[in-house]
Amino acid sequence: MAWLVLGIAGLLEIGWAIGLKYTEGFSRPLPTVLTVASMIASVGLLGWSLRTLPVGTAYAVWTGIGAVGTALLGMWLFDEPRTVARLSCIGLIVAGIVGLKLFGGVGEA
C-alpha cells in the first residue's frame, strides 16, 4: 500500500511542477490554488508512505516520478527539446526508480 500511495504522491508532484508554469508567478488565482493544493497533498502522501518505506528510497522514487513526468509533459505541453541525450537520461531515471522499487524498499516489495 505504501508504494501505491508513494506513486500517487509522485503523480501529484508532477501536477504541481507543471502547475507552477500555469500560475505565471502565482499571479493567476485558480492555477495557484490548484498548484498549492497539489503540493500539500503530494508532501502529505509522501509523509504517509514514510511510515513504512525508507526515507532515502521513498524520496528518490518520489522525486524521480516527478522529474520524469514533468520532463515528459514539458516536451508535450511546452514543446521542450526531445533530444536523444535527454530521453536517454530520462530512461536512466526510470531505471533508477525501478531499481529502488525492486531493491530499496522494506516490507512491501
Content of β-strand: under 5%
Largest sheet: none
Number of helices: 4
Average pLDDT score: 93
Order of helices and strands: HHHH
Distance between the termini: 10 Å
Assign the structural class, choosing from mainly alpha, mainly beta, alpha/beta, alpha+beta, or little secondary structure.
mainly alpha
Query: Helical amount among residues, as a percent range?
Result: over 70%
What is the count of structural domains?
Answer: 1
Radius of gyration: 15 Å
Structural notes for this entry:
- With 109 residues, the protein is an all-alpha fold.
- The chain has one domain (2-103).
- Helices cover 80% and strands 0% of the residues.
- The chain contains four helices and no strands.
- The relative contact order is 0.18.
- The mean pLDDT is 93.
